[in-house]
């Protein structure tokens, strides 16, 4: 596999992965793949990680060598770069929706209202609890979930 990174950068990446290598054999557990890819700096979706895990399991791998982790990392970074180039920076609403997808663990289009409130009152340009209650009014279903796409479109077009 031909790495595009410099030897010094590859050495740093290898050192980062060593924290996951509990056997000292230059390999990680398959169950740690997503965490390792994220430690390296990529932000893959859970779906993407599951696809890679399925392929590796089909090859009867339970421990993944460094070079294979790097190959997966590079493919995820390349795919993200191509998508960003193709899609451009996107609208503010698209960026917000993309960010909230992180909290949509089951890819349903809904996230817990409490989690949304916690994020919007504790991160970045913080909302007050009163502002949050006003924004969520009428948007929380019986299960305590919010359709975050509708929510973002409602708050970004209501001005």
From TrEMBL:
SUPFAM superfamilies membership: EF-hand (SSF47473)
Superkingdom to which the source organism belongs: Eukaryota
One GO CC annotation: myosin II complex
Limits of the EF-hand domain: 8-43
Gene Ontology molecular function: calcium ion binding; myosin heavy chain binding
PANTHER family associated with the record: FI08416P-RELATED, MYOSIN LIGHT CHAIN 1, 3
Protein name: Myosin-2 essential light chain
Organism: Drosophila hydei
Phylogenetic lineage: Eukaryota, Metazoa, Ecdysozoa, Arthropoda, Hexapoda
